[in-house]
Every structure is written in C-alpha cells, then in structure tokens.
Amino acid sequence: MSAAISAGTPLLFAVLGGILNEKVGVINLGTEGIMLIGAVTSCIVFLQTENLFLTFLAALLASAGLGLIHAFVCISLRANQIVSGLAITLFGTGFSAYLGKSVAGSALPVSVPKIELSWLEPIPFIGRVFGNLDIFSWLCIFVAIVMYFYMYKTSWGLHLKAVGDSPSTSDVMGVSVDGYRYFHVILGSMLMGLSGFYLIMVYSPNWIEGMTAGRGWIAIALIIFARWNPLYALACAYFFGGLDALGFRFQLLEVAIPSYFLKMIPYIATIIVLMFVGWKNRHKPPIEPKALGVPYFREQRF
C-alpha cells in the first residue's frame, strides 16, 4: 500500500491542479507538459544547489509561468482552451527534453525527509502504510483536504463554483471572473508542477526524457472519475497508483507476462473506468462546471 501511495502522489498533485482549473471553467490539457517542466527544473536546480527547498520553489515558479501563459491565452485572449493546453504539452515535452540533455542519467543525491509516526506502528495495516511516509506525500494529502474545505465550506469556494457555472451571474454579483480564473489556473498549474517535482525527487530520482509516461493524461481522466471532488481524487489517485505499483511487483515476482503488458495496466484501467462512469451516468445530468471551456465575454448573456 505504501508503494501505491508513492506511485499515486504524482497523480494526486496533478488531479488536484486539474480540478482547480476546471472548477473555475478553464480546461487545461497541458498537464503532461507542465509536469515535465516541473521535473526537469527540479533536476537541474537540485544538481546545482543540492537544496531541496530551493528546488521546490523552482518547480513552483516554472509551472506557474506556464500556468500564466495558459491563463493569458485562454482568459485574456479568449483563445481555444484545448488548443492552448495541447500547445503547452507539446512545448513542455520538447523543451524539457532539450533542457534535460545535460543531466540525463544523473542520479540525484536527494534525501527526502520522512515523518515517522511511531504511535501508529502497533495498528495493523495503517501503521505499516502511514507510519513512515515522506513529507511531500503528507503535503499532498493535506492539500486535498484543504481544497475540499475551501471548495465546499467557504464563501470563496461558492464564488469558485459560481464562476465555473455562470460567470455572467458572478460578474453581476461583483465577483472578478478574470481574477478568479487567473488565480486558480496558475495555482492549479503549480500543483501540476509539484507532481513533476515529486516524480523526480522522490519516486524516480534521475531524469529520463518523457519520464511522466502519460501520467498527465491519466490525471485528466481522473478529474472526471473523481467528479471534481478533491477527496474522491485521493481514492482515485491511490487506486491507480496501486495499479502502477502492481506492474512492478509482478516484474519482481518474475511473472510470465511481458513487461510491456504490465506497463499498460494503468492505461487500460483508465479506459475501462471512463467507459463504466459514462455508462453509469448516461441518464444523469452532467455535473461538470457548466461554463467549462467557454470563454467569458463581459456582458454577454448565456
């Protein structure tokens, strides 16, 4: 289970970032590219400084820059959000490969602090899983819980939902639609950047071109599976993290299944889950933000 949490934490960071983007009405398909930029930035900065905190800040700033570009293109210029997101993914994939040439294959001498909860150890299963998690796994869980309370228990969360559902009504009520969208798109992109940070600093501490291996696309699918709810996202990310870890476990056990098929497990599961969710909810009204993907023109009536 601890392996599932380690493999699921990058997914969870990315899913939470995607939820913030989409709840405010902006589609962000640039997740994969932002994760790669966050990862390669973390690798380069840590090799230069060997300072975990500076590396953390660098990943946040790099991903915030891409989030700002996406926000400007989609909110201020009102360009097509899908095209902008795909452009960021293509840019992030190519630029990270270019930046990573000088550090490819370099092992990172990183030691991520762990939070030891010795009082949990006597508890079966829970103690083994949660008694010795790294600090960033706990940070991700904390962010998910805070996001839930922010979105569903505060007036700011109500404004967030209103901007995503009916920006024109929010504007009439005095809520800054562009301000909310800019803030949440950039913040969500920073969480996606932390996904790349965790991937290279904790999960696999050496740079490999394209090391996200499609996790950004799985995260986009998990937003729908989690029904735009941060707590559901916890369960979804760790479930798919478990599937990812299961493939490695089968390889260690030398099961007579080609490794290529084992690596396909999370992606096949993504397709099956989306099919199931679509079939189950085929007669129900959609729950996604009603203005998702729709540029807002002030004083335009929807």
Keywords:
single chain, 302 residues, ABC transporter involved in vitamin B12 uptake, BtuC, 13 helices, 2 strands, 69% helix, membrane, ABC transporter permease, transmembrane, cell membrane, transmembrane helix
Question: What does this protein structure show overall?
Answer:
α2 runs antiparallel to α3 and α10 runs parallel beside α13. The termini are far apart. The chain has a single domain, classed as ABC transporter involved in vitamin B12 uptake, BtuC (Orthogonal Bundle). Strands 1-2 form a two-stranded antiparallel ribbon. It is mainly alpha-helical and 302 residues long. It is built from 13 helices and two strands. It is 69% helix and 2% strand. The mean pLDDT is 89. It is a multi-pass membrane protein. Pfam families: BPD_transp_2 (PF02653). Keywords: Cell membrane, Membrane, Transmembrane, Transmembrane helix. Its main location: membrane. GO terms for molecular function: transmembrane transporter activity.
What's the architecture, going by CATH? Answer: Orthogonal Bundle
- What is the CATH domain class? Mainly Alpha
Q: Which whole number gives the mean pLDDT?
A: 89
Shape: globular
How many strand units?
Answer: 2
GO molecular function, one term: transmembrane transporter activity
Membrane topology: Multi-pass membrane protein
Keywords: Cell membrane, Membrane, Transmembrane, Transmembrane helix
InterPro entries: ABC_transp_permease (IPR001851)
